[in-house]
Amino acid sequence: MARTTADITVPDLTGKLAVVTGASDGMGLFLAGRLAAAGAEVIMPVRNRRKGETAIATIREWHPGAAVSLRDLDLASLRSVATLGAALRDEGRPIHLMINNAGVMTPPTHQYTAEGIELQFGTNHLAHVALVAHLMPLLRAGRARVTSQTSVAANSNEINWDDPTWQGPYNAGRAYSHSKIAFGLFGLELQRRSEAGNWGITSNITQPGIAPTNLLAARPEVGRTRDTMSVRLIRVLSRVGLLGTPQTAMLPALYAATHPDARPGRFYGPQSVANMSGRPGEQKLYSNLRSEEDAARMWDLSAKLAGVSFPA
Ligand SMILES: NC(=O)c1ccc[n+]([C@@H]2O[C@H](COP(=O)([O-])OP(=O)(O)OC[C@H]3O[C@@H](n4cnc5c(N)ncnc54)[C@H](O)[C@@H]3O)[C@@H](O)[C@H]2O)c1
Predict the structure, then answer these.
(1) Where does the pLDDT of residue 219 fall: very low under 50, low under 70, confident under 90, or very high at 90 and above?
(2) Cys-Cys crosslink for 6: which of 111, 114, 279, 286, Cβ 3.0 to 4.6 Å?
(3) Cα(256)–Cα(99) distance, integer angstroms
(4) What pLDDT, on a 0 to 100 scale, did the predictor assign at position 25?
Protein backbone atom coordinates (compact mmCIF):
# COMPACT_ATOMS: atom_id res chain seq x y z
CA MET A 1 0.00 0.00 0.00
CA ALA A 2 1.33 3.43 -0.91
CA ARG A 3 1.88 5.72 2.05
CA THR A 4 -0.05 8.97 1.84
CA THR A 5 2.42 11.69 2.61
CA ALA A 6 1.12 14.76 4.32
CA ASP A 7 2.98 17.73 5.59
CA ILE A 8 2.41 21.17 6.97
CA THR A 9 3.99 24.49 6.20
CA VAL A 10 5.94 25.93 9.10
CA PRO A 11 6.00 29.74 9.21
CA ASP A 12 9.30 31.61 9.22
CA LEU A 13 10.70 31.27 12.73
CA THR A 14 13.76 33.46 12.29
CA GLY A 15 14.57 35.19 15.57
CA LYS A 16 12.53 32.73 17.66
CA LEU A 17 14.01 30.70 20.49
CA ALA A 18 12.54 27.22 20.97
CA VAL A 19 12.98 24.53 23.62
CA VAL A 20 12.16 20.92 22.70
CA THR A 21 12.49 18.12 25.23
CA GLY A 22 13.27 14.58 24.09
CA ALA A 23 14.91 15.87 20.92
CA SER A 24 17.70 13.29 20.80
CA ASP A 25 15.38 10.60 19.42
CA GLY A 26 12.12 9.77 17.74
CA MET A 27 9.63 12.54 17.13
CA GLY A 28 11.59 15.12 19.09
CA LEU A 29 14.53 14.90 16.69
CA PHE A 30 12.25 15.65 13.73
CA LEU A 31 10.48 18.42 15.66
CA ALA A 32 13.77 20.12 16.50
CA GLY A 33 14.95 19.65 12.90
CA ARG A 34 11.81 21.22 11.42
CA LEU A 35 11.90 24.19 13.81
CA ALA A 36 15.56 24.78 13.00
CA ALA A 37 14.85 24.47 9.27
CA ALA A 38 12.28 27.25 9.65
CA GLY A 39 14.93 29.50 11.19
CA ALA A 40 14.36 29.01 14.92
CA GLU A 41 17.21 28.63 17.34
CA VAL A 42 16.50 25.36 19.12
CA ILE A 43 17.65 24.38 22.59
CA MET A 44 17.65 20.61 23.02
CA PRO A 45 17.86 19.57 26.69
CA VAL A 46 19.06 15.95 26.75
CA ARG A 47 19.92 13.29 29.27
CA ASN A 48 22.55 11.63 27.11
CA ARG A 49 25.13 14.05 25.64
CA ARG A 50 26.52 11.47 23.23
CA LYS A 51 23.09 10.85 21.73
CA GLY A 52 22.52 14.59 21.75
CA GLU A 53 25.69 15.22 19.73
CA THR A 54 24.59 12.62 17.19
CA ALA A 55 21.18 14.32 16.98
CA ILE A 56 22.81 17.70 16.39
CA ALA A 57 25.02 16.21 13.65
CA THR A 58 21.93 14.63 12.03
CA ILE A 59 20.01 17.92 12.07
CA ARG A 60 23.00 19.76 10.60
CA GLU A 61 23.22 17.14 7.86
CA TRP A 62 19.56 17.83 7.03
CA HIS A 63 19.89 21.60 7.42
CA PRO A 64 23.46 22.90 7.31
CA GLY A 65 23.82 25.92 9.58
CA ALA A 66 20.89 24.90 11.82
CA ALA A 67 21.07 26.80 15.12
CA VAL A 68 20.73 23.90 17.56
CA SER A 69 22.44 23.41 20.89
CA LEU A 70 22.38 20.96 23.79
CA ARG A 71 21.75 21.45 27.50
CA ASP A 72 21.83 18.78 30.20
CA LEU A 73 18.53 17.58 31.59
CA ASP A 74 17.43 14.42 33.35
CA LEU A 75 13.68 14.63 33.67
CA ALA A 76 13.82 11.84 36.25
CA SER A 77 15.35 14.33 38.67
CA LEU A 78 13.60 17.52 39.78
CA ARG A 79 17.00 18.85 40.85
CA SER A 80 18.23 18.50 37.27
CA VAL A 81 15.11 20.31 36.04
CA ALA A 82 15.72 23.15 38.51
CA THR A 83 19.38 23.37 37.46
CA LEU A 84 18.44 23.72 33.79
CA GLY A 85 15.78 26.28 34.68
CA ALA A 86 18.30 28.38 36.61
CA ALA A 87 20.90 28.12 33.80
CA LEU A 88 18.42 29.29 31.17
CA ARG A 89 17.17 32.09 33.42
CA ASP A 90 20.81 33.16 33.81
CA GLU A 91 21.09 33.26 30.02
CA GLY A 92 18.02 35.48 30.22
CA ARG A 93 16.72 35.04 26.69
CA PRO A 94 12.96 35.07 26.04
CA ILE A 95 11.57 31.71 24.89
CA HIS A 96 8.97 31.84 22.11
CA LEU A 97 8.13 28.21 21.68
CA MET A 98 8.32 25.17 23.94
CA ILE A 99 7.45 21.60 23.03
CA ASN A 100 7.16 19.28 26.02
CA ASN A 101 7.75 16.09 24.12
CA ALA A 102 10.06 13.77 26.10
CA GLY A 103 8.53 10.69 27.60
CA VAL A 104 8.93 7.12 28.78
CA MET A 105 6.44 4.29 28.47
CA THR A 106 5.87 1.12 30.48
CA PRO A 107 9.30 0.44 31.94
CA PRO A 108 9.67 -3.30 32.57
CA THR A 109 9.92 -2.82 36.33
CA HIS A 110 8.39 -0.37 38.80
CA GLN A 111 10.95 2.44 38.66
CA TYR A 112 11.14 5.76 40.45
CA THR A 113 12.60 9.19 39.86
CA ALA A 114 15.33 10.59 42.12
CA GLU A 115 12.53 11.91 44.34
CA GLY A 116 10.82 8.52 44.65
CA ILE A 117 7.97 9.29 42.26
CA GLU A 118 6.85 6.66 39.76
CA LEU A 119 9.04 7.10 36.68
CA GLN A 120 6.36 7.79 34.05
CA PHE A 121 4.38 10.26 36.16
CA GLY A 122 7.64 11.89 37.23
CA THR A 123 9.16 12.13 33.74
CA ASN A 124 6.20 12.63 31.44
CA HIS A 125 4.26 14.98 33.68
CA LEU A 126 5.82 16.35 36.89
CA ALA A 127 9.24 17.22 35.47
CA HIS A 128 7.63 19.11 32.60
CA VAL A 129 5.33 20.95 35.02
CA ALA A 130 8.45 21.94 36.96
CA LEU A 131 10.30 22.96 33.80
CA VAL A 132 7.44 25.22 32.71
CA ALA A 133 7.36 26.78 36.20
CA HIS A 134 11.12 27.37 36.27
CA LEU A 135 11.08 28.88 32.79
CA MET A 136 7.95 30.97 33.36
CA PRO A 137 9.72 34.39 33.35
CA LEU A 138 11.35 33.54 29.99
CA LEU A 139 8.13 32.08 28.58
CA ARG A 140 6.26 35.21 29.60
CA ALA A 141 8.95 37.45 28.16
CA GLY A 142 8.68 35.60 24.84
CA ARG A 143 4.85 35.38 24.93
CA ALA A 144 5.53 31.71 24.30
CA ARG A 145 3.34 29.05 22.82
CA VAL A 146 3.69 25.89 24.94
CA THR A 147 2.74 22.56 23.40
CA SER A 148 2.49 19.43 25.51
CA GLN A 149 2.55 15.93 24.08
CA THR A 150 0.03 13.49 25.55
CA SER A 151 -1.12 10.20 24.04
CA VAL A 152 -4.03 8.13 22.88
CA ALA A 153 -3.32 6.32 26.17
CA ALA A 154 -4.93 9.31 27.93
CA ASN A 155 -8.19 8.00 26.51
CA SER A 156 -8.11 4.87 28.65
CA ASN A 157 -7.80 4.15 32.36
CA GLU A 158 -8.05 7.07 34.78
CA ILE A 159 -6.19 9.28 37.23
CA ASN A 160 -5.07 7.33 40.29
CA TRP A 161 -6.09 9.97 42.81
CA ASP A 162 -5.59 7.55 45.73
CA ASP A 163 -1.92 7.03 44.93
CA PRO A 164 -0.78 9.53 42.27
CA THR A 165 2.94 8.79 42.68
CA TRP A 166 2.35 5.01 42.68
CA GLN A 167 3.87 4.02 45.99
CA GLY A 168 1.49 1.06 46.25
CA PRO A 169 0.22 -1.58 43.79
CA TYR A 170 1.52 -0.88 40.31
CA ASN A 171 0.44 -1.42 36.75
CA ALA A 172 2.81 0.12 34.17
CA GLY A 173 0.12 0.60 31.49
CA ARG A 174 -2.26 2.29 33.93
CA ALA A 175 0.56 4.45 35.23
CA TYR A 176 1.42 5.54 31.65
CA SER A 177 -2.22 6.55 31.03
CA HIS A 178 -2.26 8.31 34.41
CA SER A 179 0.85 10.32 33.47
CA LYS A 180 -0.57 11.32 30.10
CA ILE A 181 -4.02 12.25 31.48
CA ALA A 182 -2.30 14.37 34.13
CA PHE A 183 -0.15 16.05 31.49
CA GLY A 184 -3.08 16.73 29.18
CA LEU A 185 -5.01 18.27 32.08
CA PHE A 186 -1.93 20.39 32.86
CA GLY A 187 -1.61 21.72 29.30
CA LEU A 188 -5.28 22.75 29.28
CA GLU A 189 -5.16 24.26 32.76
CA LEU A 190 -2.01 26.19 31.81
CA GLN A 191 -4.01 27.94 29.10
CA ARG A 192 -6.89 28.74 31.50
CA ARG A 193 -4.55 30.09 34.22
CA SER A 194 -2.55 32.11 31.71
CA GLU A 195 -5.71 33.64 30.32
CA ALA A 196 -7.11 34.42 33.78
CA GLY A 197 -3.82 35.84 35.07
CA ASN A 198 -2.74 37.60 31.88
CA TRP A 199 0.52 35.68 31.81
CA GLY A 200 0.81 36.27 28.08
CA ILE A 201 1.60 32.67 27.14
CA THR A 202 -0.61 30.18 25.33
CA SER A 203 -0.82 26.43 25.70
CA ASN A 204 -2.26 23.57 23.70
CA ILE A 205 -1.96 19.79 23.77
CA THR A 206 -1.36 17.06 21.21
CA GLN A 207 -1.31 13.32 20.68
CA PRO A 208 0.77 11.82 17.88
CA GLY A 209 -1.15 8.65 17.04
CA ILE A 210 1.11 5.61 17.10
CA ALA A 211 4.55 5.25 15.53
CA PRO A 212 7.47 2.90 16.07
CA THR A 213 10.13 4.76 18.06
CA ASN A 214 12.46 3.85 20.90
CA LEU A 215 9.52 4.45 23.22
CA LEU A 216 8.07 1.13 22.10
CA ALA A 217 11.23 -0.64 21.00
CA ALA A 218 13.50 -3.00 22.84
CA ARG A 219 15.51 -0.80 25.20
CA PRO A 220 18.33 -2.51 27.06
CA GLU A 221 18.87 0.60 29.21
CA VAL A 222 15.52 -0.02 30.89
CA GLY A 223 15.99 -3.78 30.98
CA ARG A 224 13.83 -4.66 27.96
CA THR A 225 15.84 -6.63 25.43
CA ARG A 226 13.34 -7.85 22.88
CA ASP A 227 10.53 -6.30 20.90
CA THR A 228 7.17 -7.64 21.98
CA MET A 229 4.72 -9.07 19.44
CA SER A 230 2.71 -5.86 19.52
CA VAL A 231 5.81 -3.75 18.80
CA ARG A 232 6.66 -5.97 15.84
CA LEU A 233 3.10 -5.54 14.58
CA ILE A 234 3.35 -1.75 14.97
CA ARG A 235 6.55 -1.78 12.89
CA VAL A 236 4.88 -3.75 10.12
CA LEU A 237 1.76 -1.54 10.13
CA SER A 238 3.95 1.55 10.02
CA ARG A 239 5.96 0.18 7.12
CA VAL A 240 2.85 -0.46 5.05
CA GLY A 241 1.47 2.98 5.87
CA LEU A 242 -1.29 2.00 8.31
CA LEU A 243 0.40 3.64 11.29
CA GLY A 244 2.61 6.69 11.58
CA THR A 245 6.35 7.09 11.39
CA PRO A 246 8.27 9.44 13.70
CA GLN A 247 8.23 12.00 10.85
CA THR A 248 4.44 11.96 10.48
CA ALA A 249 3.54 11.34 14.13
CA MET A 250 5.29 14.55 15.19
CA LEU A 251 3.16 16.66 12.82
CA PRO A 252 0.34 17.40 15.30
CA ALA A 253 2.92 18.82 17.75
CA LEU A 254 4.64 20.77 14.97
CA TYR A 255 1.27 22.12 13.85
CA ALA A 256 0.11 22.98 17.39
CA ALA A 257 3.42 24.69 18.17
CA THR A 258 3.80 26.75 15.01
CA HIS A 259 0.79 26.97 12.76
CA PRO A 260 -1.08 30.27 12.68
CA ASP A 261 -4.41 28.38 12.68
CA ALA A 262 -3.63 26.30 15.78
CA ARG A 263 -5.54 27.66 18.74
CA PRO A 264 -4.79 27.90 22.46
CA GLY A 265 -6.47 25.44 24.80
CA ARG A 266 -7.16 22.98 21.99
CA PHE A 267 -6.22 19.36 21.38
CA TYR A 268 -4.51 18.35 18.15
CA GLY A 269 -3.81 14.93 16.73
CA PRO A 270 -3.58 13.01 13.49
CA GLN A 271 -6.83 12.99 11.54
CA SER A 272 -7.28 9.29 12.17
CA VAL A 273 -6.29 7.47 15.32
CA ALA A 274 -4.18 5.20 13.17
CA ASN A 275 -2.37 8.23 11.77
CA MET A 276 -2.93 6.92 8.27
CA SER A 277 -2.40 10.27 6.62
CA GLY A 278 -0.36 11.98 9.30
CA ARG A 279 -2.19 15.23 8.57
CA PRO A 280 -2.88 17.00 11.86
CA GLY A 281 -6.15 18.50 12.99
CA GLU A 282 -8.15 19.48 16.02
CA GLN A 283 -9.59 16.60 18.01
CA LYS A 284 -12.45 16.23 20.42
CA LEU A 285 -11.12 16.13 23.98
CA TYR A 286 -10.96 12.68 25.53
CA SER A 287 -13.47 12.37 28.36
CA ASN A 288 -10.55 12.01 30.81
CA LEU A 289 -9.39 15.51 29.83
CA ARG A 290 -12.73 17.33 30.05
CA SER A 291 -13.09 18.03 33.78
CA GLU A 292 -11.87 21.48 34.77
CA GLU A 293 -12.21 20.40 38.38
CA ASP A 294 -9.79 17.49 37.82
CA ALA A 295 -7.43 19.84 35.97
CA ALA A 296 -7.37 22.34 38.85
CA ARG A 297 -6.93 19.54 41.38
CA MET A 298 -4.05 18.01 39.38
CA TRP A 299 -2.47 21.46 38.96
CA ASP A 300 -2.37 22.05 42.72
CA LEU A 301 -1.16 18.53 43.48
CA SER A 302 1.55 18.69 40.80
CA ALA A 303 2.87 22.08 41.91
CA LYS A 304 3.08 20.73 45.46
CA LEU A 305 4.82 17.48 44.44
CA ALA A 306 7.23 19.32 42.14
CA GLY A 307 7.91 22.02 44.74
CA VAL A 308 7.16 24.85 42.32
CA SER A 309 4.79 27.79 42.18
CA PHE A 310 3.16 29.69 39.35
CA PRO A 311 2.20 33.35 39.07
CA ALA A 312 -1.17 34.31 40.60
N1 LIG B 1 5.62 6.56 19.70
C2 LIG B 1 4.32 6.53 19.93
O3 LIG B 1 3.60 5.72 19.34
C4 LIG B 1 3.69 7.50 20.87
C5 LIG B 1 2.31 7.43 21.05
C6 LIG B 1 1.69 8.34 21.91
C7 LIG B 1 2.45 9.30 22.56
N8 LIG B 1 3.80 9.33 22.38
C9 LIG B 1 4.54 10.37 23.10
O10 LIG B 1 5.33 11.10 22.19
C11 LIG B 1 6.50 11.62 22.87
C12 LIG B 1 7.74 11.32 22.07
O13 LIG B 1 7.95 9.93 22.09
P14 LIG B 1 8.72 9.10 20.97
O15 LIG B 1 7.78 8.09 20.49
O16 LIG B 1 9.39 10.00 20.03
O17 LIG B 1 9.76 8.32 21.91
P18 LIG B 1 11.34 8.22 21.96
O19 LIG B 1 11.64 7.18 22.99
O20 LIG B 1 11.91 8.04 20.59
O21 LIG B 1 11.75 9.65 22.48
C22 LIG B 1 11.55 10.02 23.83
C23 LIG B 1 12.57 11.05 24.20
O24 LIG B 1 12.41 11.39 25.59
C25 LIG B 1 13.70 11.41 26.19
N26 LIG B 1 13.66 11.11 27.60
C27 LIG B 1 13.11 10.04 28.22
N28 LIG B 1 13.39 10.07 29.54
C29 LIG B 1 14.11 11.20 29.77
C30 LIG B 1 14.73 11.77 30.90
N31 LIG B 1 14.66 11.18 32.10
N32 LIG B 1 15.38 12.92 30.77
C33 LIG B 1 15.50 13.54 29.55
N34 LIG B 1 14.96 13.03 28.42
C35 LIG B 1 14.29 11.87 28.54
C36 LIG B 1 14.47 10.31 25.44
O37 LIG B 1 15.87 10.46 25.62
C38 LIG B 1 14.02 10.57 24.02
O39 LIG B 1 14.79 11.60 23.44
C40 LIG B 1 6.47 11.01 24.27
O41 LIG B 1 5.93 11.95 25.17
C42 LIG B 1 5.53 9.84 24.12
O43 LIG B 1 4.93 9.50 25.34
C44 LIG B 1 4.44 8.46 21.56
Answers:
(1) low
(2) 279
(3) 9
(4) 93
Q: What's the CA-to-centroid distance between 179 and ligand 1, angstroms?
A: 13
| pLDDT recorded at residue 87 | 98
Pick the closest to residue 288 from 178, 163, 192, 131 (CA basis).
178
Buried b / exposed e along 131-145 (16+ C-beta atoms within 10 A): bbbbbbebbbbbebb
CA-atom Rg of the chain in angstroms: 18
d(CA 276, CA 28): 20
pLDDT of 72 strictly over 90: yes
Regarding the beta carbon of 103 and ligand 1, being less than 6 Å apart is answered yes
Phi first, then psi: what are they for 80, rounded to 5°? Answer: -65, -40
Which residue's CA is the nearest one to ligand 1's atom 37?
A: 22
Angle subtended by helix axes 127-141 and 292-306, to nearest 10? 100
Q: Which of 213, 216, 227, 228 to mutate to test ligand 1, by most ligand atoms within 8 A of the CB atom? A: 213
- With H, G, I as helix, E, B as strand and everything else as coil, classify residue 255: helix
In whole angstroms, what is the distance from residue 94 CA to residue 41 CA?
12
Query: Which mutation among 149, 215, 250, 283 tests ligand 1's pocket best, with the greatest number of atoms within 8 A of CB?
Result: 215
pLDDT in tens, 20-33: 999 999 999 999 99
> Ligand 1 within 6 A of 214 CB?
yes
Question: For residue 4, what pLDDT band results from cuts at 50, 70 and 90?
Answer: very low
Q: Which residues of 175-210 are buried (b: 16+ CB within 10 A; e: fewer)?
A: bbbbbbbbbbbbbbbbbbbbeeeebebbbbbbbbbb
Question: What separation in angstroms does the CA of 180 have from each of 50, 68, 107, 119, 187?
Answer: 28, 28, 15, 12, 10
Q: Quick check: 168 pLDDT over 80?
A: yes
